[in-house]
Amino acid sequence: MAWSNRKNNVLPGFTPALGYTVFYLSLIVLIPLSALFFKTATLSWDDFLAAVSAPRVLASYRVTFGASLAAAVVNAFFGVLVAWVLVRYRFPGKKLIDALVDLPFALPTAVAGITLASIYSSNGWLGRYLEPSGIKIAFTPLGIVIAMIFIGLPFVVRTVQPVLEELDQEVEEAASCLGAGRWQTFRRVLLPTMLPAILTGFALAFARAVGEYGSIIFIAGNMPLVSEITPLLIITKLEQYDYAGATAISTVMLVVSFLMLLCINLLQKWSRRFAE
Amino acid sequence: MQVGRVLKKHNQRGGGSTSEPAWVRYLLVTVALIFLALFLLLPLAAVFAQALDKGWEAYLEALKEPDTLSAIRLTLTTAAVCVPLNLFFGIVASWAIAKFNFRGKSFLITLIDLPFSVSPVVSGLIYVLIFGLQGWLGPWLQDHDIKIIFAVPGIILATVFVTFPFVARELIPLMEAQGREEEEAALTLGASGLQTFFRVTFPNIKWGILYGVILCNARAMGEFGAVSVVSGHVRGSTNTIPLQVEILYNEYSYAAAFAVASLLALLALVTLAVKTAAEWKMQQTVTVSEKER
To answer: For residues A244 and A166, is the Cβ–Cβ distance under 8 A?
Structure first.
């Protein structure tokens, strides 16, 4: 869309609208977020480093990022499968299931948390069958992964689905005419087309999982060094009035979120170029 | 993202060289359905099963608990303040961003999306750093006897932060896709700016607004992490529904915890239903306007 510049635009209200947007954005988002950096800046470098690299903190990074990575990988795989099935095949209840995929976005995290904890606990619906066979999920790092799979589930489905819907059938027909089998076509033609979307969904699911709190704390067991996630550690520090520690760790988390956001933006640019 | 999905929902394909053998199709559908049943349906069913574990009477009794009622009131109040604020912002921001061209536009969109990528715990913490006792404004607020952190205003502020982008991010792509010819025509024919907005723009975006509002509302009522940091957890005064669920659960009153949680699960189901309907309506509007062109 080649829009002319603002001078030729007859629509009113640009200056007040943009002014209010920037004002409200600064008031609610930018100034409060900058408070975190200003507060961190009052710490000395050594204190900051000590706060963000204490053994318990390092262990919480390992748990958080490790579990997020595992959950995002599972979601990438099943997300592509679900998106594929929803776009390509017909089966009863498909519309309902399509709508239900967004449940993790709509269900409050605390509700998801207590529900997952009760399902996977030793007398829960699934826990009672899994535990005798030696698989303990609730109150272990595995429980954290399960909660993260739940909250990240819609991301890959919803990024891959539109790409699959847009795909031209001709490309697949061409591949088939040239002698490719179905699997070959999928691997060589369809998968590369979906790849930017899959990676975007993967990154979104990962970013969401890293910051997640509510759905995890109930199922995690929260043992320091073993199953304690970083957001919980921030809250623990706050409750002990260790504001400096909480602030320093939060800054690390915030910087990670910014980096993830940057990655996601670049990935989306890449997938748009792919689409053209 | 949403508009793209709505615009391009058409091609259903037939069999032949571009489909898989029947057994592969059945296998894939089965695996996908088992995965979704385990991760979506089972938790959903578990909420209601556990809530009614001790029967209807215990269920209703748990909901009539004074602390629970006050939590419901606080959650409704919070949503009633947050949603209109972010709705107004969303409409104003998308007007500026979608109908005009200016430098730094995509950077501004990134900034608006920022709250989505910040951990809820960090979202709560930043307000503690400003309004808390050790924060920037803490001493001044204490001198004037104003309580923000560990009180209702803090809960509202944190909720406004986490629900900030919802309406704007739905409306920006929708209004961009609609262009501005219709508004220009209305203005040329002598309509005022506000008339143009309410008579021309609004009918085109009303389903998008509903979509954004319903998601914003769901998050406002269900937010846990950010609110948990600023609330102080005082029963009967600064507990929202999700925090009440946590307290009951930690006290091992599981049936009561799930009874209260079932309210939020119902809200989630209503949200999904309205969202799906709004998506369907948006799709219709887009198809109609495409036909007219």
So the answer is: no
Q: What is the dihedral of CA B57, B61, B62, B67, to 10 degrees?
A: 170
Q: What CATH number labels A45-110+141-271? A: 1.10.3720.10
| CA B69/CA A209 separation, integer angstroms | 32
With vertex at residue A19, the alpha carbon angle to CA B105 and CA B187, rounded to the nearest 5 degrees, is 85
Q: How far is A175 from chain B (nearest CA, A)?
A: 9
Give the count of Cβ contacts less than 8 A between chain A and B: 302
How far A85 CA lies from chain B's nearest CA (Å)?
6
A35, A266, A225: which is closest to A141 by C-alpha?
Answer: A225
Model-level pTM?
0.90
ipTM of the complex: 0.89
Helix or strand (DSSP H, E) at B161: helix B152-163
Taking only the tens place, the pLDDT of each residue in A148-173 is 999 999 999 999 999 999 888 888 88
Q: Which helix (H) or strand (E) holds A164?
A: helix A141-166
The reply to whether residue B96 touches residue A14, judged by beta carbons under 8 angstroms, is: yes
Classified as helix, coil or strand, A102 is coil
Delimit the domains of chain A by residue range: 12-41, 45-110+141-271
- Which chain A residue shows the shortest CA-CA distance from B160? A28
